[in-house]
Amino acid sequence: MTFQWTAVAAFLYAEIAILLLLCIPIISPLRWQKIFMVSVWNKITNYWNKAFLAIIILLIVLFLDAVREVRKYSNVRLDKTTHTSTSAFDHIQMKLFRSQRNLYISGFSLFLWLVLRRTISLITSLAKEMGAQAALGMQVENTNEVAKKYLEENEQLQQSLKGKTNCDTEELSDETNEKLKQEVEKLKAELKKTSHALIKATYETTAVKKQCECLKKEYDHLTKEYEKLLCCADEKCDKKAK
User: pTM for the full model?
Assistant: First the structure.
């Protein structure tokens, strides 16, 4: 195997190892996001798109070269009547096998490179949605606490009003009653506003949960497709080896 195909094969093995590492369920998307946010990666981000396109172009060129080699040696026909022609036929078959091997290596490297980029993008999006969901959960909890507080104050105020109503009504002045009514109206308005905020936060949380479920389903689908392709590649390599 020449140097260029050795490098492509090593690149393919590295892609498989990284994808298997990303598929480990123990490591959550939030933890992966923390890893991606390391200062070293932030410095590389500016060159990431250029490097991604450069590797794609290089893999496409190698893939087309492998296709050309396969077509070249597939069209060769030799007679096996003599010892010389038999050796030449075996040499052509060896060249054909190597070109087919190179075709699979470059093709799967190109495909897994695209899958790897898509997987990292999905993990990043899922981590952001999970963070937003956690923030919304905290906001909902805070809103619930504020709402409970206002409800308790409202109940206390109503009980105070009932107690004062049961007392001698003649002792209550009009000014005191007006202040109490204004306070009650203010508390009702604040309670209504808090209730609307709570309902809105609940809807947003539901939407985020649905989006997270969709992202998880897409991530699982990509993982299954990757496993199927890996199995197919192993079967084809075994057949070629036989």
Answer: 0.54
